[in-house]
Amino acid sequence: MSPDVAAVRDDYPVLDRSVNGQPLTYLDNAATTHTPRQVYETFESFYAGYNANVHRGIHELSHEASVAYEAAHDRVAEFVGADGREEMVFTRNTTESINLVAHGLALPEFGPGDAIVTTEMEHHASLVTWQQVAKRTGADLRFVRVTEDGNLDVEHAKSLIDADTELVSIPHVSNVLGTVNPVRTFADLADDAGAVLLVDGAQSAPTRPVDVDAMGADFFAFSGHKMAGPTGIGGLYGRTGLLEEMEPFLYGGEMIRHVTFDRSTWNGLPWKFEAGTPPIAEGIALGAAVDYLDDLGMDWVRDHENRLAQYALERLSAREDVTTYGPGLGEERTGLVSFNVDGVHGHDLSSILNDRGIAVRAGDHCTQPLHDRLEIPGSVRASFYVYNTEAEIDRLLDAIEDARAKREAYLASDRYSDRLY
Ligand code: PMP
């Protein structure tokens, strides 16, 4: 049976609060989702029940913390279709996961004559990282074009991914356009070229079923705080053979097996990549978050996201003064829509929306080159999650109408003078 959104909302006490005297309408989920009580209560049970450092202790509390922390790796691995904890490294977030691959694989291995192929729809977490790797190694950095309708140009990708290519890095879902990219096609292209494929799953792990094996990803990076989990925890799936070959990213305790004054050997997977005391409570809570999402059913989450995106697109594109970006009505999307309203600056609009208790994001969403490509300085993004409703999208549309009306009234008033501009 499909979950009832009213019952889902009961899991999130924050949704009962008001902002500026209005009910909170939280439409900034692509930045961070809210955390249900089933997840944040795991913090209380950890700190009230068995808080201790993991791996090192023989005592009971350390044993209980270790068992829970390790089991969370298994749960999260299973959630993305990985074989087990050996393939699931806990990191702070997507950004750190991508940087781990940069430091562990790309910086030590790549050089002049090698190529990295990425896309014009990259988040800065990926784009800036590969830009720096290219600068430091002398590798060539290539960008797959985004088409007018917000998709990756696969023909262009075919012309870029060649025998020199060592790494292909693409987002599974664009955080601005909502596009769901054909990862399998890119996996095949990478495979034929002998390159590894890194998939930025920051926007897909929260919003649709993920199977790293079926998509052919060698690496898959994601963040807990975008998928009903806490901040400070994320994951990197990596194929075992690759993780085994890779250099550690950080050095220190927990990641070693044996240390002498001259040399050190590394712990087994995934601990080789988790130096120092890890985010124990956060890791256990990430396990609870994936349990929570699995209980809702990821097929349902995907369909709910798509339904809300289609409804928002339908209502926004019915307005002549609104431009939306990315795949159009009827095409598959995740639950986010970026748009601009003629004559109303995004920051002004989001401030007017905030007056009505509506949270959206305005700006470049960490994708400045994509906005350059779209020839716009920024956009407003409304993004939805499991607890959002069509009524909340109606509230957004009412507020946009209000913002437009205020602007028209101002332009018609004697307070306005075009000589000022
Ligand atoms: N990639 C994409 C596609 C994203 O949407 C984000 C977050 N906006 C990131 C990477 C970075 O995530 P984090 O800040 O959690 O590392």
UniProtKB/TrEMBL annotation:
It catalyses: (sulfur carrier)-H + L-cysteine = (sulfur carrier)-SH + L-alanine. Residues 386-413 form a coiled coil. Keywords: Coiled coil, Pyridoxal phosphate, Transferase. Its cofactor is pyridoxal 5'-phosphate. Residues 25-396 form the Aminotransferase class V domain. The keyword Transferase applies. It is an enzyme of class 2 (transferase). One of its GO terms (molecular function) is cysteine desulfurase activity. Its EC number is 2.8.1.7. The keyword Transferase applies. This is cysteine desulfurase.
